[in-house]
Specification:
The protein is α+β, with helices and mostly antiparallel strands. The chain has 5 helices and 7 strands; from the N terminus they run αβββββααββαα. α2 packs antiparallel against α3 and α3 runs antiparallel to α4. The longest helix has 52 residues.
Length: 239
Amino acid sequence: MMRKTLLAAALTVTAFAAQADYQCSVSPRDDVILNPQTVQVKGENGNLVITPDGNVMYNGKQYTLSAAQREQAKDYQTELRSALPWIDDGARTRVDKGRVALDKIITEQVGASSNMHARLTKLDAQLKEQMNRIIEHRTDGLTFHYKGIDQVRADGQELVNQAMGGILQDSINEMGAKAVVKGGGNPLQGILGSLGGLQGAIQDEWKSQQADFQKFGKDVCSRVVSLEESRKTLVGSLK
């Protein structure tokens, strides 16, 4: 269950699949670059540049727009300026929430001095680095890198797998040491009982967070679908 919780957090950083088994109908194929002067959408679908007042350049050509086209362009760039920070904040918030919840469980079940806390802190920093490969924070704005999604999906899962190996070993070592100190009975049974308590607590936490992970994934997908429809409508009108 800890693996599921950590994997959900890792997959959250892919931004477009907060749950491993949830797939959006639209896969982004363009980078999005936000800065105060322009919104740029470039990639497999061409190179689209929009200013806040609705001026449009597409594949290097400046277009003279009708009033309706200009409003479409303004609405699309406004939607992008809203959606990208919202996705970024939502992903980071859920990674933080998962780490805090697991930290609390480890403190309650194993102790505040457990080495597992350090492993979670390290994993949190690593996942934040992965997030920046998809939605990059710059001094003048944000950049979404669509090719980063598949790369981070694989790398994030590997990071979680590595962390899980260390956490499992720590839990056995630390709980084993406590069982020996307590004495009496069968130390192995004590370890297994403690591991069962840890797993049960994590399972309960996963159940409480699972619905939120799934809802976030679906909400993100809905906004991505809407953005893609807006892009197609605008570009289609230019042609």
